[in-house]
Write a structure and sequence with these properties.
Blueprint lengths: L33 H12 L5 E4 L10 E6 L5 E7 L2 E6 L17 H8 L1 H23 L1
Antiparallel strand pairs: 1-2, 2-3, 3-4
Length: about 140
């Protein structure tokens, strides 16, 4: 069990350079801040899981972020988010296990779909409700 605190030295994004327009394009526009990406992932699917949040204890950087998720079945996972996608790195919050060789998923939807039947059901029902609403809208 390895725990690492987020060290401000490792977080050049917290220096406020983003706000300064002179530095806005310093590293190019294709570089993503994975913490922001992770927040977006959480906001997208939070309704379909029991709990989900970006880890505050594991190291975060421009190229990696960690997300804790608890499925509706009460299983806990720590997910790693990189340019390669998302993968399970531990079976508990705020941990990584280097021995775990889990596949990357392109989307959080496919990852959760593979882990949680309850997620699949809740997400599918939400999709159906949205489609019904769109159908009613187009009929009026």
């Amino acid at each position: 069990r390895m725990e690492t605190d987020c060290n401000p030295v490792e977080l050049p994004n917290n220096t406020g350079f983003e706000e300064d327009s002179d530095y806005g394009d310093f590293e190019g526009t294709d570089v993503k801040d994975m913490r922001l990406e992770a927040e977006a992932v959480v906001n997208d699917v939070l309704f379909a899981v029991s709990n989900m949040f970006v880890s505050k204890t594991l190291p975060c950087a421009e190229d990696v972020a960690y997300i804790n998720v608890e499925t509706r079945e009460r299983n806990r996972y720590c997910l790693e988010l990189t340019e390669a996608g998302l993968r399970v790195v531990a079976y508990d919050f705020d941990q990584t296990d280097d021995r775990l060789q889990t596949p990357y998923h392109e989307t959080v939807y496919s990852l959760l779909d593979s882990l949680s039947p309850a997620y699949r059901e809740v997400f599918g029902n939400a999709l159906l409700q949205r489609l019904e609403a769109l159908k009613k809208e187009s009929q009026s």
